[in-house]
Design a protein that fits this description.
280 residues; mainly alpha
């Protein structure tokens, strides 16, 4: 891994983490396209690349924490005072409870899929097919959501279904934001509410993955020898691009359909599936 690769992947992570186009799929595509053009075997596994992926997610986590800092503080205060005063009626308290429950559901679904997800990192053609499914889901949810009354508040039922969708998105190609926002739309949420809740729900999962995975999987003696300049630069790039992406994506979804992302996923998914089937 070199500096150029880390910067490219930082840009890709920052853009694709919050857009409904699957950041994991695009990291797989970027890494493997880079290997193809550099003449490196696609099957070549690198713990350094896995660690870079974790750090890039940490960069976008910092971006979402900064962008939603006010909402996060309101939710934390509501949880504290709600539990203290035994008053669970506020919307912020409910959102905090939904995010806590949703995180548990996500882990229960995503954890058994972990080995499959790691296998798919080196099977970009299959990831492309899963991205096609994401595109179909986005287009379908937009078409069906037009018949459903937009709601501004997340319910217990919709929060559970969104959490299930987030758990399935552990597989590269299944966009986390795409599946969760689409599920929100199908449960009657307006686009902005679905997107904001999707981003807030992602915080505990990304935080857990960034902190827990290295402790379990990585050899810290090996980590010391990594190209830290490339890793740090890539992380900073992912955070900056991620923050900008959140800001303008929320403005976009308040006015426009997500169908453009659905078509994008279809095109990119089909192209990469065919490309890597030929050059695997």
């Amino acid at each position: 891994m070199d500096l150029i690769q880390s910067i490219l992947m930082g840009i890709v992570q920052g853009l694709s983490e919050f857009l409904p186009i699957s950041s994991s799929a695009h990291l797989v595509f970027t890494s493997n396209f880079y290997k193809v053009f550099k003449g490196i075997e696609i099957v070549q596994e690198s713990n350094q690349e896995v660690f870079l992926d974790i750090m890039l997610h940490l960069g976008t986590l910092i971006a979402v924490l900064i962008f939603f800092r006010k909402e996060i503080m309101q939710i934390l205060k509501a949880l504290y005072f709600g539990l203290k005063n035994k008053d669970y009626s506020s919307l912020d308290f409910k959102y905090g409870a939904y995010i806590f429950l949703g995180t548990i559901i996500t882990v229960l679904i995503a954890f058994p899929l972990n080995e499959v997800a790691e296998f798919l990192v080196f099977k970009p053609a299959i990831v492309g097919i899963l991205l096609v499914f994401t595109g179909i889901l986005l287009l379908s949810s937009e078409a069906l959501a037009k018949k459903i009354l937009d709601k501004k508040e997340v319910s217990l039922k919709s929060s559970i279904l969104i959490a299930i969708a987030q758990g399935l998105a552990a597989l590269p190609g299944f966009s986390r934001s795409g599946l969760t926002i689409a599920t929100g739309l199908l449960n009657g949420l307006d686009r902005t509410t679905a997107a904001r809740y999707s981003f807030l729900l992602s915080i505990p999962i990304i935080l857990g993955a960034s902190m827990v995975y290295p402790l379990i999987k990585l050899d810290f003696h090996e980590v010391i020898s990594y190209n830290w300049t490339a890793i740090i630069v890539g992380t900073i790039v992912s955070g900056i691009v991620g923050y900008i992406c959140i800001k303008y994506f929320l403005k976009f979804v308040s006015k426009f359909s997500l169908s453009i992302f659905g078509y994008y996923c279809l095109i990119v998914g089909i192209f990469t599936a065919v490309f890597f089937e030929i050059f695997r």
